[in-house]
Amino acid sequence: MTVGHRAEADPVTHPAAAPPPVPRRRVWGDGPRSALATAALLVALGVIWEVGSAGRLWSPEVLPAPSTVFPALRALAGDAQFWADAGRTGTEVLGSIVCGSGIGLVVGVAFWKAPLAGRVFEPYLVSFYAVPLVLFYPVMIVLVGLGTPSVVILASVMAAIPMALNTWVGLAAVPPVYLRLARSIGCTRRQQLLRVALPSAAPYVLAGLRLAVVYALIGCIAMEFTTAQAGLGYRIRYLYDAFETTPMYAYILVVLVVSITLTVLLAVLERVVMAGRSQS
Amino acid sequence: MTDRGIQLDDVTVRFPTSGGEQMTAVDQVTQRIPERGFVSVVGPSGCGKSTLLGVIAGLQSATSGRVVVDGRVVTGPDRRVGLVFQEDSTLPWKTVTDNVRFAMQIAGIDRAEQRRRAREAIELVGLTGFESAYPSMLSGGMRQRVALARSLALSPSVLLMDEPFAALDQQTRLLLGAEILRIWRQTHQTVLFVTHDLSEAILLSQQVWVMSYRPGRIIDVIDVDLPADRDASVVSTREFNQLQNRVWESLRAESLRGFRQESGVGA
Question: Is residue A173 within 8 Å of residue A201, measured between CB atoms?
């Protein structure tokens, strides 16, 4: 009895009676709350770090207290050497992201356009994925020398691989009816790609971009660690060798902040692009 | 102007199969739909109904024969021909309005005109109030209305519909069928409607073509002489039932043959 009554009293389940929905463009989502939670977590970690150091749970040579690391961090702001290193690493990372994702996008589109090429090259691309490309850094140094280009080239290749694979998979997953629609309304090949196929594949492309950014960052820092003579990675290793633990941690914090900033920027981009698409 | 409408001259479409043989999807179809006519094609699944539609839309070319729409031979996609697909073809990253405007943007219609026509088309399909909703918030039936509005906004002279309600439940199908009739009376397109639902075909159209299982031929043409202003209540009349029996008789043998071949019984 109550069941029948309920079904009738619930007009929302009937599509024709549904009220016009409010467009949800909540790019920030429940941002304030999660930002607060993150801040609380960071503060808690900082407190543990400080208390642990003060209580001598570990030696200050291994991990100095935040009360000594943060002043060192502030000192970096006025340090020309730091800005030179940061500039070099920033250029490398940015260059690798742009080149890598650009190349990856083009390769992904090409594989989609020429399925035969895709089938031929896919196994190599996938196995390349598993190879630690940093191994080829010495080869790059021999080929193009010790400067920025050798780092950017390898990091770009590292970034391009996930971008290419994701773009390709995303394009292959475009519902065929979208392409038939595009043709039926007279889209040129270029419009089919830019107005229909790529927007449809955007969630995959974005996932690829995320990986590309991570790989570019890892690649650049790791290569600076090994042989370069400037950059944040190089400076961290140099300070480590010189037992200058406190500034070393300041540098590590800088790298962390850079990577977190990139992640947040990508998350914002994702929210904008994914607006309106069905999300679970 | 006698040459308006759709003219099919000896249209044949063959596909190479994986076994290296030729499969004839559409075989020597010669038919005519007069201007503002509403014709339904029924036939067993896999008989080439969609292929026939694709050829008229210019999405694929006929192996031989030709299609003439409004006096011009079809050589490729044409904006005078609107197409509504069986699958959901609304683009999920665009709002209802942007979906409807998309075809007009590609056609290069100016912005003010786009807005005006989008508003009209959305009103015509009964989606006013949902302009800024995304497809993910709409039901399947509403998404098909969006697709229909997108086609109508280009004001095509011919509308081709490929089982547009196939994925919807029976109640929604009936309601949308009545909507299609109402819209068609307002817009006066020449319509070719593909379906596998006999009562839907009879309810909507002036003429029903029965297509055979491979090779796809039009084996029967049945005129529907029901009142022009009929609505869903006509389904329960004797005339409707007679027509349905007539169509089913033509179709039954073909459906059985198609079923046997698809399930491998005949092999």
Answer: yes
Mean pLDDT of residues grouped by 10 in chain A (280 residues)?
37 40 52 85 92 87 88 89 92 96 95 88 82 82 85 92 94 95 93 95 94 93 84 91 90 92 90 71
Average pLDDT over residues B45-69: 88
Q: Per residue, what are the HEC states of A95-116? A: HHHHHHHHHHHHHHHHHHHCHH
Least Cα distance to A178 among B37, B87, B132 occurs for B87
Which chain A residue lies closest to B151 (C-alpha atoms)? A185
Cα A224 versus chain centre, distance: 19
Do B248 and B43 form a contact (C-beta atoms < 8 A)?
Answer: no
pLDDT at residue A13, as a whole number: 35
Residue B227: pLDDT band (50, 70, 90) is confident
pLDDT in tens, B124-180: 898 999 999 999 999 988 999 999 999 999 989 999 999 888 888 888 888 888 888
Q: Which of A185, A189, A192 to mutate to test the interface with B (most CBs of B within 10 A)?
A: A185
- Strand arrangement of the beta sheet that strand B81-84 belongs to: B81-84, B158-162, B190-194, B38-42, B207-211, B218-223
Q: Is A178 on the interface with B (CB under 8 A)?
A: yes
pLDDT of residue B225: 87
ipTM of the shown complex: 0.88
Q: How far apart are CA B210 and CA B247, in angstroms?
A: 7
CA distance to partner chain B, nearest, from residue A116 (Å): 18
Cβ atoms of A27 and A271 closer than 8 Å? yes
Look up tokens 């073809």; give the residue.
B89
**Nearest partner of B154 among B120, B128, B182, judged by Cα:** B120
What does the alpha-carbon distance between residue A239 and residue A137 come to, in Å, rounded to a whole number? 22
Q: Is A187 on the interface with B (CB under 8 A)?
A: yes
Q: Do residues B256 and B249 lie in contact, with contact meaning Cβ atoms separated by under 8 Å?
A: no
**Cβ–Cβ below 8 Å for A181 and B85:** yes
